[in-house]
Amino acid sequence: MSISSVSSGSASYSPATSSSSSQLDKQIAKIQQEIIKEQANKADDAKTKAQKIQLLQQQLQQLELQARQQSTSNAAVSNNTASGGNTTSSSSATGTAGSIDTTA
Q: How far apart are CA 63 and CA 35, in angstroms?
């Protein structure tokens, strides 16, 4: 049995694409409340309860990540504006691919 979405009562999760921080905060609070409700839920068996809680926790982590990214993005915009908007940045990434010797 797999759970692809969670909806309980009037609260449900839908991924935020371009939400304001207050909207993200509200979604985070809803998910936290859903986790608390599910932990207290006596109707579901232990396996179903654990699956629902795990899904809610994943959704919570995703929302918290979005909030952090948005906060970082807003701080970068603020810093750029404060410095006159004339900042440039460059970055490069290099990597090496490993090889597997399959000869015996």
A: 14
**What's phi and psi for 46, nearest 5 deg?**
-60, -40
Any idea what DSSP says for residue 85? T
Structure tokens at 50: 């654990």
CB 1 within 8 A of CB 51: yes
Is 27:16 a contact under the CB 8 Å cutoff? Answer: yes
Whole-angstrom distance, CA of residue 50 vs CA of residue 40:
12
Domain borders along the chain are 45-75
The pLDDT value given to residue 72 = 85
Strand residue runs (E) in 22-94: none
Residue 58 DSSP one-character state: H
Which helix (H) or strand (E) segment is 8 a member of? strand 7-8
Given a cut of 90, whether residue 5 has pLDDT beyond it is no
Is residue 7 classed as helix, strand or coil in its secondary structure?
Answer: strand
